[in-house]
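Before a colleague's protein record goes any further, I have to sign it off. I want your independent view on whether this chain really folds as the tokens say. The record follows directly below this note.
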Amino acid sequence: MKRLVQLVVFLVALLLRHPALSFETAYWVWQRNEPPSESDLAELSAQGSRTLYWHLGTLENTENAWRWKARFALPSIQNFEVVPVLRLESRERAPFTPDAVGSLLKHLAAATRNRGRLQIDYDCPDRLLHEYAAVLQQIRKIVPELSITALPGWIRQPALTELGGSVTEMFPMLYDFAPDPVVPGAAPVPLISQEKTGALLK
């Protein structure tokens, strides 16, 4: 990635905050090696945020193996929990063959040593959701607290129950999965809208 995209990208992990639901305000930090600045930390603390989901790196699947495409340093930040996030990318028809899963687990074991939490970000095709759920169960043996990002369309798939049973948390990606309307000169549609997001959560 170019240096331009190595800036911190804070995306809301839980979009609506409601006292009855006790949602935590947490953020992702994507493609960044440098720890947050003092002003960043002050702003996060002012919001009551105590958790950062930090992009550990990206593993890419090619020819029955997963290989590092990008790696980033995980900081140690006082008074914050830093949860590593692993991005998975694959254009292969079968990314979860036994050999591929073996290499994935090997990379994960080395990268998450002595860490009890991990989040996986993978835009899994619907046809692979059953296989993905089975792989997540194997990953849970390495990292007990495992969360995943989830595409909104998965809610219509029978494998959703399997996925839910394979992880401790699922984070639905409700912020930007529809194209903006093509209107010359118009401003982009906001990524976070209480009206839109509230309807999706309902």
Notes: The longest helix spans residues 98-111. The CA atoms of residues 123 and 162 lie 16 Å apart. The first strand starts at residue 27 and ends at 29.
